[in-house]
Structure formats: structure tokens, C-alpha cells
Amino acid sequence: MSATPGVSARRLLDDLDALAAIGGRPDGGVDRVAGTAEDLRARRWLAEQMRARGLLSRTDDIGNVFGHTPNAAKRRLLVGSHTDTVPAGGRLDGAYGVIAALEVLTTLHEHGHPAADALEIVSFWDEEGAQPQSPGGMTGSTALCADPHLAEITGFVELHIEQGPRMELAGQELCVVDGIVGVDRHLIRAVGEPNHAGTTPFPLRKDAGRAMARAAAAAHDLMQSVSDTLVGNIGSFTLEPGAPNVIPGAAHLVLELRSPHEDALTRCAELILEHTRAIAAEEGCTVEHRMLSHKPVVAFDESMRTLVEKVCRSTGRPAGSLYSYAGHDAGVMSAHVPTAMVFVPSTRGVSHSPHEHTPDRLLTQGAQVLLETVIAHHDSH
Ligand SMILES: [Zn+2]
Question: Is the Cβ–Cβ distance between 196 and 351 less than 8 Å?
């Protein structure tokens, strides 16, 4: 058996620097929202890099940038992530997975390794959904899943920064992602009676704002009582009509819940609703509820997860495992092809910020694990 090729740390880090300079901000962050001039420039830069390394590049109708070797096999493992960012985003979210994929393909191609021809790399279009006109993100991966090109894809692997503090706190350098949490959004609205804010005595008020505020204040503790794997947020809270001298006749909030367990999502919503109804009754109000959206829990393919775990273990870099609490293109791909996702730690858990950081050694190690995963996948097919 020939020695396993090693990725070039220098080239990987230089490429990350070069990409970060496109839409780069003085504070070290990146502005490369999907569809902006900077995003398009980064995609052209990526395609140029591929061609300069003897690879073929293609951009599809929606804007996904693909690359493979000139002698590519009919069916290929897809590896990559996204090069668009949130406004004032970081240099690693998405970019790391794309540059690592480019480094893996470049290295395998240089070495004439047979796995190179069974590999395709991608930068997906509009993962973040940061533009008002975006359908909500994951736009490129969703489009690929409805495209005939999908028939040529044997699986998908996405390398990404964790974007949270858990790995660093646990001292983990690599994690194989179990899946992506389910996300439920509920609109909860209390209805009372609008009235004059000066002339209406307290006992006669049906203050929907007060009812909703009390319910919102209690929600955090209720979430924690359901499961320590569940997190939630009330990020939108509206008083109606919303005037300083009118007692709110109605008030609504959007409750978002995330958990790797569907039953925890359901139980938590029921508990919060029950509690909100009780508080509303005390305030002389009633409660309306509508589920706005349900994104089911994603569990990544077991054989793909095992493959990555084995690669990590056999090379003396044991990986932990965790659920991702953020959405990714891998979640979309996973419904159609066997998919795995690998995380490297985020320093202090910071992401979607100019201060995104992961030590160079761990960025390089993650790319090497990606390369060895691609080889192991090739050998097993
Ligand atoms: Zn991302």
C-alpha cells in the first residue's frame, strides 16, 4: 500500500487567507452575502483556483460551483460547503469546508491517487439565507437535490467549524456529527381588550401585553425542565396596537425550539402553551396558537458516520460526537444521499462574527481527516 498523501498546511491556510480577503473587513470579518458582488467574485476566484490546478470547474444555473478532475468517474463522492456569509460574518463558516475540499482534491490529484477521480467538490449557493429575497437558505443544496446531477453523487461529506463552545469545553479536536436538531416555530398570541392607558383602573384591564410578557418570562425555565438537550428562543415579541397610551389589546411572540428529540419539541410546546393559557386567564385574556414551521430532526447516515469515526480512530485522532444545533447543507443532502458531517472546534464558540477562529493545527488536521475519509470511502466502494 502506498503512503497516504498529506494535505499542504501552507496552501490550505494561504487559500483561506485569499478567500477571506474577498469581501474582507478591517475587523477581520467577511461580508460575502449570497448574490452580492463579493460573493460572485469569491465564486469566480474558486473556479480559477481549480483550473489553475488542472481541475475542471462548472457553475450550475443557480450558482453552485463544482470541481473535479479531467478523468472523473461517472459517480462521485461530493465534498464541500458554502462560500457565502452572513453580513459581518467570519472567515471560516462555510469557507473552511470549501477550501479544505479544494485542498483534498488538489492533493489527491497531484499524487495521482485513484480517489481523486471519484471526488467532486462544491461551494453551495446561498446557504445562509441572509438576503431578504432568499427562500431561507440552503438554496443551492436544495436545488441540487432536484437536479439530474444528483444521480452522479454517491454521498456527501461536509467539514465545518462547530460554531459553538461544546468541543472546546470538552477538549475535543474532532467530532463526527450525529445529525441536526429539529426546529419548531410557534406563533402564540394573547387576546385581551385595548383600552385607555390612563382612565382604565388596573382591576378592569385585559392587558394582553402583560399576559404575554409574563408567559415569555417563564418560558426559559419551562424549556429547561423538559430536556437538557432542548434550547429555545423568543426573538420576536409584538404588542398590538403598540402605542404608549393604549393598553395592548393583543400581543404575540414567536417561540423557536430546537432539540435532537422530536418528542421533547412537542412536550415543550405543550407545556409552554398550557402555562401561557393559565397566565392569560389570570389577566382576562385568551390564547391563540399556530405552528409556523417544523423542521424534522436529521440523523446522518450510520455507515458514513462509522467510516469517519474509523478514519479518526485508526489515525490516532479519536473523534467525539454531537448534534448540530445549526442548520447545514448536509442536512438537506442527507435526505437524498448518505451524508456525514465533521466538526472542528470554534475558539470560545464564536461564529457568525468577525471573531471566528480555529487554531491552524486543527484546521489542517480536519482537512487531513477529510482526505483520509475520501480515500476510505473510495476503498469501500
Ligand atoms: Zn456554514
Answer: no
Residues 249 and 230 in one domain: yes
Could you say which of 244, 273, 295 is where a domain stops?
A: 295
> Do both 349 and 290 map to the same domain?
no
**Which of 267, 295, 323 is at the close of a domain?**
295
ipTM of the complex in this document: 0.96
Mean pLDDT by 10 residues, the chain (381 residues): 87 98 97 97 98 98 98 97 97 98 98 98 96 87 98 98 97 98 96 98 98 98 97 95 98 97 98 98 98 94 97 93 96 98 98 97 98 97 86
Do 331 and 286 fall within a single domain?
no
| C-alpha of residue 160 to centroid of ligand 1, in Å | 7
Residue 10 one-letter amino acid: R
Widest CA span of the chain, in angstroms?
87
Query: For ligand 1, a single-atom ion, which residues have Cβ within 5 Å?
Result: 93-94
Q: Report how far ligand 1's centroid is from the alpha carbon of 266 (Å).
A: 27
Q: What are residue 339's DSSP bridge partners?
A: 156
Are 288 and 305 found together in one domain? no
End-to-end Cα, the chain, rounded Å: 17
| 376 in Cβ contact with 342 (< 8 Å) | no
Tally of CA atoms within 13 A in the half-sphere of 72 that contains its CB: 20
Residue 369 C-alpha to ligand 1 middle, in angstroms?
19
Q: Separation of 172 CA from ligand 1 center, angstroms?
A: 20
Based on the domain organization, do 308 and 287 belong to the same domain?
no
Ligand 1 centroid to 243 CA: how many Å?
A: 40
**CA of 103 relative to ligand 1 center, distance in Å:** 18
CA of 220 to the centre of ligand 1 (A): 27
Give the domain extent around 47: 9-180+297-379
Q: Calculate how far, in angstroms, residue 93's C-alpha sits from the geometric centre of ligand 1.
A: 5
